């Protein structure tokens, strides 16, 4: 602006010689007055010009700012696609399945694209019929208690409110769920039902994948019947055998500015060096570990309590929320992969999408080194899916190993059984497969393209922000087990957290985190009784709940009955937070504490047994006291057994049939009086 102002002043130079000629005609006072007037006029003139021109600057900026194209229809037309596969994904699996389906399309003379519903305007579904042989496929995961995933929330909201005519739309849905949860595959079922209600035509039946069983097999079984249905509907045929098509091309950077290279950041380059709120999945906060102590006094397991400092982060949380942690893979596993593949892991490279129109330019942040990719961005510890085995098979020089890989990736019953036993049940990760197949030596860049992303791990927060506004507490157990092949497998996040040492400078005590909101909430009225059931590390959110109830009591609030049912294996080994619970009970905040020690006697005792023992008191709290019930921990057995126990209690004391008791408990859930925070 200064330069522009100076440029405008140049055409108006003051003429000094003409002023000299006037000296004899005017007194000094006149000269002063004239100079003052001229000066004021000049100042006003330029000030006025600036005021007029300033508003033009924002207009220039808005013209330059790029507009995001939110129409997937226009993109499909532009790139010649006719199949779009939308994914609702929380952990990356639904996105992976969507990518596999979109790649399949070329075998039938069709062209597919995977799409994140968060990036597009889904009301355009009504226009999909403008494209010949068009089809929309939805790979939808269910999260939490029947909820949509974060990236599918807007799509879900739109579906609920939409009255659009989708009669020209052809669709199919594959749902990803887990049968141990109450609302199995709720999102997949809802999308399938709602699209039909809006007039869309289902061309193949809803697929229901179960992660408690074998999700990969469920998907393959659905997929092998889905494509023949597509062929029949559109009158097309398979063009040949499944072939390996690279999605990304490798670019090796020999002369690169290391300040432009990603070193583990999730989104913005250098975001770990220059932290800026708000913090979320793409911009986690580096929290310092201020405490890391072992909770159990004995036994083989390692149960731990960690405290993360969130001072100056502007992160806010409530009791019952989850903290997401981005872990790193074990460096020894990364080094072994590098050694087996004969690769310099510090090579800086980029994997660039061959489809220039794709919104996803790289499979992970690039440019980066292979070491960084294998440490922070890629999942190297879970058994790889069948599509990875199929793509890798071409690199096995031994025909027997190549056939074995292809067989496991096939849809034949024998192949599925082999994949289940040799990969899934044996818990073989990519390193184990490379070790057990000496002729399999794929290029490391193709391996990096195929491996799924390393996902954040979620933990129920074990603290109250009312008591600890600048700290988030985690309660976790390290995962470690022997596989059928004799290998020792370790949980990525828990073993990484175990080694986070407080009070050390540098990255050794830093943990990338963000908070995800939950529906697991204390009652609005502090006087409402609460019944908390959380064995093992399921006690975590209840430590936060009890801290908050103690704080409310200190504030002079009337606090209702606070009842905890907790369980562990042995009283002398893994009774977590024993001292804290005893203190809360002594202070009168924790009004009832019932602990089941499952292995301290011949017959195992669990939390549900203690609930039955106190069934009359439970019914009184629920029926008369309008108590809220909270269950946290294992979904497969504990949560189901506890729920069945409540059915029995309600049936007995409420004089109801089994069906009526089930309906009663379901209504408690609908009203937010029976909440679950469970995992399988």
UniProtKB/TrEMBL annotation:
Name the lineage: Eukaryota, Metazoa, Chordata, Craniata, Vertebrata
In terms of superkingdom, the source organism counts as Eukaryota
UniProt source species: Sclerurus mexicanus
Q: Which residues cross the membrane?
A: 25-46
List the CDD domains hit by this protein, alphabetically: CYPOR
One GO term of the cellular component aspect?
A: cytosol
What InterPro entries does this protein's entry cite? CysJ-like_FAD-binding, FAD-bd_FR_type, Flavdoxin-like, Flavodoxin/NO_synth, Flavoprot_Pyr_Nucl_cyt_Rdtase, Flavoprotein-like_sf, FNR_nucleotide-bd, NADPH_Cyt_P450_Rdtase_alpha
What protein name applies here?
NADPH--hemoprotein reductase
| Region annotation (Disordered) ranges | 1-21
Cofactor names from the entry are:
FAD; FMN
Q: Which GO terms describe its molecular function?
A: flavin adenine dinucleotide binding; FMN binding; NADPH-hemoprotein reductase activity
Q: Which HAMAP family match?
A: NCPR
Keyword Flavoprotein on entry: yes
């Amino acid at each position: 602006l200064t330069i522009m102002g100076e440029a405008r002043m140049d055409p108006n130079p003051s003429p000094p010689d003409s002023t000299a000629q006037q000296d004899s005609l005017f007194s000094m006072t006149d000269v002063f007055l004239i100079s003052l007037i001229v000066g004021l006029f000049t100042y006003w003139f330029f000030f006025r010009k600036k005021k007029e021109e300033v508003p033009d600057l924002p207009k220039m900026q808005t013209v330059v700012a790029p507009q995001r194209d939110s129409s997937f229809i226009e993109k499909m037309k532009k790139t010649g696609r006719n199949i779009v596969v939308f994914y609702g994904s929380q952990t990356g699996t639904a996105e992976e399945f969507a990518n596999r389906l979109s790649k399949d399309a070329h075998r039938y003379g069709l062209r597919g694209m995977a799409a994140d519903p968060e990036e597009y305007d889904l009301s355009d579904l009504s226009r999909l019929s403008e494209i010949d042989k068009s089809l929309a496929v939805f790979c939808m995961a269910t999260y939490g208690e029947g909820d949509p995933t974060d990236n599918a929330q807007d799509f879900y909201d739109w579906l609920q409110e939409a009255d659009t005519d989708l009669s020209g739309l052809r669709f199919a849905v594959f749902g990803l769920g887990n049968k141990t949860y109450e609302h199995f595959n709720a999102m997949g079922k809802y999308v399938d039902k709602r699209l039909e209600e809006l007039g869309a035509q289902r061309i193949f039946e809803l697929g229901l994948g179960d992660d408690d069983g074998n999700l990969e097999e469920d998907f393959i079984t659905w997929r092998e019947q889905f494509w023949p249905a597509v062929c029949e509907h559109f009158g097309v045929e398979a063009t040949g055998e499944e072939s390996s098509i690279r999605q990304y091309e490798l670019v090796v950077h020999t002369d690169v500015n290391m300040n432009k290279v990603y070193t583990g950041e999730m989104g913005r380059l250098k975001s770990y060096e220059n932290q800026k709120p708000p913090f979320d999945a793409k911009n986690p906060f580096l929290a310092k570990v201020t405490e890391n102590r072992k909770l159990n006094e004995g036994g083989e397991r390692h149960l731990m309590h960690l405290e993360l400092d969130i001072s100056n982060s502007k992160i806010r949380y409530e009791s019952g929320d989850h903290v997401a942690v981005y872990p790193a893979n074990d460096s020894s596993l990364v080094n072994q992969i590098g050694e087996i593949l004969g690769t310099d892991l510090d090579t800086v490279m980029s994997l660039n999408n061959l489809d220039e129109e794709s919104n996803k330019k790289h499979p992970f942040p690039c440019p980066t080194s292979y070491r960084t990719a294998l440490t922070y961005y890629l999942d190297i510890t879970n058994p790889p899916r069948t599509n990875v085995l199929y793509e890798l098979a071409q690199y096995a020089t031994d025909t027997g190993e190549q056939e074995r890989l292809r067989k496991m990736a096939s849809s034949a019953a024998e192949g599925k059984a082999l994949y289940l036993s040799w990969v899934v049940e044996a818990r073989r990760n990519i390193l184990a497969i490379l070790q057990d197949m000496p002729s399999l030596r794929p290029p490391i860049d193709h391996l990096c393209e195929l491996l799924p992303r390393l996902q954040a791990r979620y933990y129920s927060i074990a603290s109250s922000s009312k008591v600890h506004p600048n700290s988030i507490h985690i309660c976790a157990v390290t995962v470690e087990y022997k596989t059928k092949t004799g290998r020792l497998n370790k949980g990525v996040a828990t073993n990484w957290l175990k080694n986070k040492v407080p009070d050390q400078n540098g990255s050794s005590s830093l943990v990338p985190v963000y908070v995800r909101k939950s529906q697991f909430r204390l009652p609005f009225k502090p006087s409402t009784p609460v019944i908390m059931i959380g064995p093992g590390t399921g006690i975590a959110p209840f430590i936060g709940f009890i801290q908050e109830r103690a704080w409310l009591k200190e504030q002079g609030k009337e606090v209702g009955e606070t009842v905890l049912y907790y369980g562990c294996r042995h009283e002398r080994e893994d009774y977590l937070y024993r001292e804290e619970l005893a203190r809360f009970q002594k202070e009168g905040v924790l009004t009832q504490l019932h602990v089941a020690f499952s292995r301290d006697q011949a017959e195992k005792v669990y939390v549900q047994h203690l609930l039955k023992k106190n069934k009359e008191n439970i019914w009184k709290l629920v029926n008369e006291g309008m108590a809220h019930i909270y269950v946290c921990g294992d979904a497969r057995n504990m949560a189901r057994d506890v729920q069945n126990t409540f059915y029995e209690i309600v049936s007995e004391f409420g004089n109801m049939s089994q069906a009526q008791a089930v309906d009663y408990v379901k209504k408690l859930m609908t009203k937010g009086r029976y909440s679950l925070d469970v995992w399988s």
